[in-house]
Amino acid sequence: MKSIGKVHPRISKLRNLPIFIPFTRLRADTYESVRRYSPILVPLLDDYAYSRYFIKRWKEKKTFLNVEHDMVVTPGAIEALRDCRAPWCSIYYGPPGVKEIRGFMGCMKFSREFIAAHPRIWFKMKWGELDRILPRAATCALHVHADLVAHNRRET
Ligand SMILES: [Zn+2]
Fold first, then answer.
1. Separation of 145 CA from ligand 1 center, angstroms?
2. C-alpha 88 – ligand 1 centre gap (Å)
């Protein structure tokens, strides 16, 4: 885990963790892996739509889980993220031993506390820039659930 400053105080336990799937090409097995949680599907129609999507989530100021369109989430992972009291979490899906947080947005929980503490992270930017901006802007450490697996189907 890459630490960037202090960890925020623990958040209160969540009863519900809304799932959003922003997508250009949604994989059937991605949708199937979280279907029982009634995910909200958000089509991304241009290169800037992913940043607009985050700006919208930030305006809502509510905890949510971001699941990218090619992630297949392991059973139990959603519950683990929901029950975790860290304000900013991700499921690790990179190769073994890699500590960089870049790319972990594929299955990442943003709590309302994290959102409130970082009100101005997002601006209009191309989709590929978001995972560079986020770790630089974050003032707390990302909690990485390395014991859980989400599969990034881009690699297969
Ligand atoms: Zn966590």
1. 6
2. 7
CATH number for the 19-155 domain, one of 3.30.470.20, 3.40.950.10, 3.90.550.40, 1.10.1020.10? 3.90.550.40
pTM: 0.88
Non-local CB neighbours of 15 within 8 Å, separated by 6+ positions? none
Residue 131 C-alpha to ligand 1 middle, in angstroms?
18
Compute the distance between CA of residue 30 and CA of residue 6 in angstroms, rounded to an integer: 33
d(CA 120, CA 58): 9
pLDDT interval class at 104 (50, 70, 90) = confident
Task: Identify the CA nearest to 73 among candidates 55, 54, 90, 53.
Answer: 90
